[in-house]
Amino acid sequence: MNNSFISKIFENAKAVITARNEREAREEDPRIYDRLKDHLCIKNAHRSFVMCIFVFIMGIIEMITDSGTLFGIIGTVMLLLVSVVFFGSLYKFSTGRSVKIKSVRMLTYLFWALFSASVLLVCISHVIQAKFPYAAAAYIIIMMMFPIMNIYESAVFTAFTVVLGLVCGLGLKLGLAFWMTALLIAVGTIWIPAIVRCCYADLWLGERRIETTEERCELISQKDSLTGLLNKAGLSAKFSELAGQYGAEKTISVILIDIDNFRAFNHIYGYDKSDECLYRVCNCIKIVAKPYTELVSRFGGDDFVLIFENMSELDVVKLAEQLRESVEQMAQTFGDGIVTVSVGVSGTADLVGKQTYSELLKDADDQLMIAKNAGRNCIGFKGMAYKHKG
């Protein structure tokens, strides 16, 4: 039990040091990883912006309570200047319309480096005055709440603080209290932001994975499992997107295709052959319609619906004939003959909403019935049945 607990601690520490969650995200989807990096950068800038208020308050308290040592004065002035200067700069960068990620990242690193150095100088003043270095404790608490940088990023801006601590500690021959304080600040600066970042990145990546899974499930729910075409729900959703994008600026037409006597085909050949037939008809439709539209749907057992934007009625009728001929030329055996389709073509209307879509779909269905009543394997359009030869 003990070994398991210790190994878990080492495993978590390794995950923080190596930024394992981010590395896995990069391997899984580089785009998600890039989004995570940019998101964390902006989030860090927002947190640092808020942090400036706390740094200013800390500077005021130190100005009131410090006895006036040189290090205390320099540290206090740095705290006040850092809070005022970076408050404006971080606000400008983090809320601008065109955010410069590199500038935001460098500005944030500089803020935390100068803040860490200021706290170290204040702590030197406390040690010289034989006071408890409360600034170090406040610093550690602040680090637990605000920065979200990985261990390598933290180490870069901590280097300046470490060098400053060594120079001051050795030059002034400060005692154990200072070295313990300096060690606490250095370790806290490197380690705590990395833990915060690791937890934050885990949460963000978890949310993105849930969103991605939901999106995939929604896409799957909108696709027909056999043909890969949109189903009724998918076509309705796509049409809603279309209507939202263009409104009355676009016109649409609808083609409705029905496989002739498919119920009899199913009865004669069985489900497997019927599915194969559907798949082949589907491929014919997709190949012919591809240059003109992506809105192709399996609308029922043997029905297909196609929606076309900004095509004249004549062009839609010509395309409907190409669709009918392509299935006929496929020459799928059906009894003594071949598989054919009947096609209903709606008129053209402005794209103003679902009512237009429903009306055109009903019109196409009415034209399809005309084609069926005329003997099938033909096109119904404006109350007449057509079948072009040659």
How is this structure best described in words?
The chain has 390 residues and is of the alpha+beta class. The protein folds into two domains: 2-218, no CATH class; 232-386, Reverse transcriptase/Diguanylate cyclase domain (Alpha-Beta Plaits), CATH 3.30.70. The chain has helices at 2-18, 20-28, 30-65, 70-95, 101-128, 134-145, 151-172, 176-221, 232-246, 262-289, 313-330, 354-373, and strands at residues 251-259, 296-298, 303-309, 333-334, 337-338, 341-350, 379-381, 384-386. The chain starts with a helix and ends with a strand. 35% of the residues are buried.
Uncertain stretches of 5 or more adjacent residues: none
Give the DSSP E fraction (strand runs of 2 or more residues).
Answer: 5-15%
- Helix and strand element order: HHHHHHHHHEHEEHEEEHEE
Shape: elongated
Radius of gyration: 35 Å
End-to-end CA span: 83 Å
Number of strands: 8
- Overall number of domains: 2
Helix content: over 70%
Discrete helix count: 12
Strand order of the largest sheet: 2-3-1-6-7-8
Summarize this structure briefly:
With 390 residues, the chain is an alpha+beta fold.
Which terms summarize this structure?
12 helices, two-stranded antiparallel sheet, Alpha-Beta Plaits, single chain, 6-stranded mixed beta sheet, alpha+beta, 390 residues
Q: What is the element layout, followed by pairings?
A:
Elements: H1 2-18, H2 20-28, H3 30-65, H4 70-95, H5 101-128, H6 134-145, H7 151-172, H8 176-221, H9 232-246, E1 251-259, H10 262-289, E2 296-298, E3 303-309, H11 313-330, E4 333-334, E5 337-338, E6 341-350, H12 354-373, E7 379-381, E8 384-386
Parallel strand pairs: 6-7
Antiparallel strand pairs: 1-3, 1-6, 2-3, 4-5, 7-8
Helix pairs in contact: 2-3, 2-8, 3-4, 3-5, 4-5, 5-6, 5-7, 5-8, 6-8, 7-8, 10-11
